[in-house]
């Protein structure tokens, strides 16, 4: 009986998929954090105001997309040939998604800011 690895028998690595999943979670968290910071601090809100009719949302969403794409590029290169613990990546991604959601939810944003 020979000892074969996954690549030798033609199975795909899960690294690229895990990279996409984690990058999505990072992008969601960035959206929430940027949104909270833009709302809490006027100077940050002015920085994120790329297009006046939409206000800070224009820069917040653009910044979150940039963070997501950069995270995806870095992780996909690092994990291109890797098998990672998909359970842990999924849990971390879900927590980041919850953070992103929470920080864009007005009652939670107001509570954090003490309003």
Quick structural overview:
By secondary structure, the protein is mainly alpha-helical. It has helices at about 15-40, 40-50, 55-80, 85-105, 105-115.
How many domains?
1
Share of helix, binned: over 70%
Q: Please identify the oligomeric state.
A: single chain
The number of helical elements comes to: 5
Q: Over the alpha carbons, how many angstroms does the gyration radius reach?
A: 18 Å
Compute the average pLDDT. 91
Largest sheet: none
Query: What would you call the structural class?
Result: mainly alpha
Series of H and E elements: HHHHH
The CA-CA distance between the termini, in Å, is 68 Å
Taking pLDDT < 50 over at least 5 consecutive residues as the criterion, the unreliable ranges are none
Overall number of strands: 0
Mind explaining what this structure looks like?
With 115 residues, this protein is mainly alpha-helical. The mean pLDDT is 91. It has helices at 15-40, 42-48, 56-78, 86-104, 106-113. It is built from 5 helices and no strands. It has one domain (15-113).
List keywords for this structure.
5 helices; mainly alpha; elongated; 115 residues
Write the layout of secondary structure elements.
Layout lengths: L14 H26 L1 H7 L7 H23 L7 H19 L1 H8 L2
């Amino acid at each position: 009986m020979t000892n074969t690895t996954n690549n030798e028998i033609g199975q795909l690595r899960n690294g690229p998929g895990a990279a996409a999943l984690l990058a999505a979670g990072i992008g969601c968290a960035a959206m929430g954090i940027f949104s909270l910071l833009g709302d809490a601090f006027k100077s940050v809100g002015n920085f994120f105001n790329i297009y006046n009719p939409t206000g800070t949302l224009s820069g917040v969403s653009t910044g979150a997309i940039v963070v997501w794409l950069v995270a995806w590029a870095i992780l996909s290169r690092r994990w291109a040939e890797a098998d990672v613990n998909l359970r842990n990546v999924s849990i971390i991604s879900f927590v980041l998604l919850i953070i992103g959601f929470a920080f864009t939810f007005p009652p939670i944003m107001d509570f954090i800011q003490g309003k």
